[in-house]
């Protein structure tokens, strides 16, 4: 399973990249705003900085909600850097734009997916990635993992090649459960990746090994 980091924070991206396990980055307008990145040109510059920090795919989201606007913004984003994936909302014009970009060989990520039907439409439109929002479903007492399972089954039934990018991942158990279900990618905050490192027996064992080494030297 690929690990993407879901942030626009350059320090967090650099830290995950330095760990050597990062496969890409996802962002959204809220994550950009959280870092204080505002204004079209600043946002474009920030995407470039992210691309220079990592080697994998970087999802950059359009703001337009109409077909022509999405095409114009998506073209501009894709022209920024070869690692850019155009992120499009799961609405009718987003699906049309997805088909347009996939026909042109430009990578796409269909976002804000909350049902298996939406995921089916995204793959029919040739999406590179589909982003079901696991955590936001859990937030409203709906089993987000069940959606990942349904999409996996549907895509496997027909050999659809769209990669399931489990999004809105909030913690390490989300990561592990996504892996169990065969999600192709997960995207979450830095803590969802670094949290996987932790086990008290590892820490206790290491202290013991070092203490025993010192006794013999
Ligand atoms: C996906 O691409 C989104 O950026 C993200 O995963 C949303 O996560 P949230 O529900 O924690 O905001």
UniProtKB/TrEMBL annotation:
Keywords: Cytoplasm, Pentose shunt, Schiff base, Transferase. It is found in: Cytoplasm. The keyword Cytoplasm applies. Pathway: Carbohydrate degradation; pentose phosphate pathway; D-glyceraldehyde 3-phosphate and beta-D-fructose 6-phosphate from D-ribose 5-phosphate and D-xylulose 5-phosphate (non-oxidative stage): step 2/3. One of its GO terms (biological process) is ketone catabolic process. The keyword Membrane does not apply. It is an enzyme of class 2 (transferase). Its main location: cytoplasm. Its EC number is 2.2.1.2. GO terms for molecular function: aldehyde-lyase activity; transaldolase activity. Belongs to the transaldolase family. Type 3B subfamily. PANTHER family: FRUCTOSE-6-PHOSPHATE ALDOLASE 1-RELATED, TRANSALDOLASE. This is Probable transaldolase. It comes from Polaribacter filamentus. The gene is tal.
């Amino acid at each position: 399973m690929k690990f993407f980091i879901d942030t626009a924070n350059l320090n967090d991206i650099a830290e995950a990249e330095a760990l050597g396990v990062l496969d890409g980055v996802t962002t959204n307008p809220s994550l950009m705003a959280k870092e204080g990145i505002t204004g079209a040109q600043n946002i474009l510059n920030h995407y470039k900085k992210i691309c220079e920090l990592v080697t994998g795919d970087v999802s950059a989201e359009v703001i337009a909600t109409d077909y022509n606007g999405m095409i114009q913004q998506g073209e501009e984003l894709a022209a920024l850097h070869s690692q850019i994936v155009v992120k499009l909302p799961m609405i009718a014009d987003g699906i049309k734009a997805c088909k347009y970009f996939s026909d042109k060989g430009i990578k796409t990520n269909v976002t804000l997916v909350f049902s298996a039907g939406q995921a089916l439409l995204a793959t029919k439109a040739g999406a590179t990635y589909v982003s079901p929002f696991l955590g936001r479903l859990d937030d409203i007492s709906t089993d987000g993992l069940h959606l990942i399972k349904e999409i996996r089954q549907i895509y496997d039934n027909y050999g659809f090649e769209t990669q399931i990018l489990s999004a809105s991942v909030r913690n390490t158990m989300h990561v592990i459960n996504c892996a169990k279900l065969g999600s192709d990618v997960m995207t979450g905050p830095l803590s969802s990746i670094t949290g996987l490192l932790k086990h008290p027996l590892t820490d206790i064992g290491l202290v013991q090994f070092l203490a025993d080494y010192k006794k013999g030297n």
